[in-house]
Design goal:
Blueprint lengths: L15 H9 L12 H9 L5 E5 L5 H8 L3 E6 L2 H11 L6 E3 L11 E7 L10 H11 E12 L13 H8 L3 E8 L11 E8 L5
Parallel strand pairs: 1-2, 1-4, 2-3, 4-5
Antiparallel strand pairs: 5-7, 6-7
């Protein structure tokens, strides 16, 4: 994900081994190392408990924050080493960090919120329609996808950037954008190229 990336054996981000290798060697330049301000503000504006999923959670820094705020949050990742790290950081909420495939995992009930943080940009662009369709499938009426969207035109990744027009075209059939603001506390790999956005699921797809 950066010019200084060391050599790795695994090159397919669709494989959990790709991510395991990077977590095991502590090469995680996408890891924010804490709870970003935009998420703190979002939680402050929305009273819980909201049923929330953090897909591709990695270190899952945000899980304990959401649970402590009274939200019914679960974090999932398909990479075992990432899950182990997330559990270690989640404290009393460690049982809410699960090893699971986003496309197969099933919640007990429809979700209120899906928190997007370096998940969409972690997988190859060809997967984007499937990700957005899965968001719509998992969310209940009026459910929201809220989080960070990475805008860039560089083909190599991860992170795989997206163009704004492409994102709008992907999201518009099932979602309407209700928040779109600049991010002021980005980490270097995303600096100047990400926005905090909230998309609400439409009652009827376009």
């Amino acid at each position: 994900m950066a010019a200084a990336e060391p050599p790795f054996d695994k090159r397919d981000p669709l494989s959990p081994h790709f991510w395991d290798e990077r977590f095991a060697r502590e090469f995680t330049p996408w890891d924010r190392g804490g709870v970003p301000q935009a998420l703190r503000g979002f939680v402050a504006r929305n009273s819980g408990p909201l049923t929330t999923l953090i897909p591709g959670c990695g270190s899952a820094w945000e899980l304990a924050f959401l649970c402590d705020a009274g939200w019914d949050a679960v974090a999932i990742d398909f990479a075992p080493v990432a899950v182990a790290r997330g559990k270690a950081l989640a404290g009393q909420w460690s049982e809410r960090v699960l090893e699971a495939d986003f496309f197969a995992w099933q919640p007990a009930r429809a979700l209120d919120v899906i928190y997007e943080c370096a998940f969409l940009c972690a997988l190859p662009p060809a997967m984007r329609p499937q990700i957005v369709a899965r968001w719509a499938e998992l969310l209940g009426p009026g459910g929201r996808v809220g989080g960070f969207f990475f805008f860039d035109q560089v083909a190599k990744g991860p992170p795989f950037g997206i163009g704004r027009e492409e994102l709008d075209a992907l999201m518009a059939p099932c979602f309407a954008c209700v928040e779109d603001v600049a991010v002021t506390d980005s980490i270097p790999v995303f600096a100047g190229k990400e926005r905090w956005m909230v998309w609400v699921k439409r009652a009827t797809p376009l």
